[in-house]
Write a structure and sequence with these properties.
Elements: E1 3-12, E2 16-22, H1 27-43, E3 48-53, E4 57-62, H2 69-80, E5 93-100, H3 108-114, H4 119-126, E6 131-137, E7 142-146, E8 161-164, E9 168-172, E10 175-177, E11 184-186, E12 189-193, E13 214-219, H5 222-227
Parallel strand pairs: 5-13
Antiparallel strand pairs: 1-2, 2-4, 3-4, 5-12, 6-7, 6-13, 7-10, 8-11, 9-10, 9-12
Length: about 230
């Protein structure tokens, strides 16, 4: 784990603090982020408006009319010392059906070529393990995970794709996106499509898959894809 020896509390403008635990893509660091967020929720410190977790840090937005950065950092350091007592929920595990390649994954052939794999080998590696979800972000709460070698050597696309649909399974820059919640542009490679949904604006929380959950992919054919 590439964590900092001392957690960094960085003041961001006049109403934000970034709590940074390290500088790497690491499951233990991410669990610290989740524990800190839960601890702050339980502490209900005056003035905190919301918290936003990332892969390795927690952004805390506060009301400067109710509290100040110095006071808030002091209280958060106290809470940090008690984080070991925080218990996170048991992770949920989601099976994600995916139709790889063709019109449902038009970048698969290119990706396999860049990685010096056959498309079949890519699918076998990509769908052959369970993934830990580090964060949700971008359009509609895309859920991100760390991909294994050699998939982690894939760069971002040189030319972004402007028309990727919801459900697209994406990969680039050492990360994977479980599937795209909403249609939109992306600089990641589109290798497959899932018929599942991630974004439910009428629910709280509005996301199916959350940080700390785990997922695995199951390749399906067109008939099963249409049936789901």
């Amino acid at each position: 784990m590439s964590g900092y020896s001392v957690t960094r509390y960085l003041v961001v403008g006049d109403r934000g603090i970034s709590v940074e635990f390290g500088n790497s893509l690491d499951e233990e660091l991410n669990l610290k982020v989740q524990k800190m967020m839960r601890a702050l929720e339980q502490a209900a410190l005056p003035g905190i408006i919301e918290t936003n977790p990332t892969i390795r840090s927690l952004f805390v937005c506060y009301d400067p009319l109710r509290t100040g950065a110095k006071e808030l950092v002091r209280e958060m350091r106290k809470i940090e010392r008690r984080m070991a007592d925080i218990r996170l929920p048991e992770p949920r595990v989601f099976e994600i059906p995916v139709l790889y390649g063709g019109e449902h994954g038009p970048d698969l052939e290119e990706v396999a070529g860049l990685l010096r794999l056959t498309p079949e080998d890519f699918v076998r590696i990509h769908s052959g393990r369970e993934y830990f979800i580090y964060d949700t972000g971008f359009i509609g709460g895309s859920a991100h995970f760390k991909v294994p070698p050699p998939l982690d050597s894939l760069p971002r696309k040189k030319t972004p794709n402007l028309g990727v649909p919801a459900g697209a399974v994406l990969i680039a820059g050492g990360l994977g996106s479980v599937f795209k919640p909403l249609a939109g542009p992306t600089g990641w490679y589109w290798v497959g499509t899932s018929p599942l949904r991630q974004w439910f604006p009428e629910k709280d929380p509005p996301l199916l898959i959350l940080p700390g959950d785990r997922i695995f992919y199951r390749p399906v054919d067109r008939e099963e894809f249409d049936r789901i």
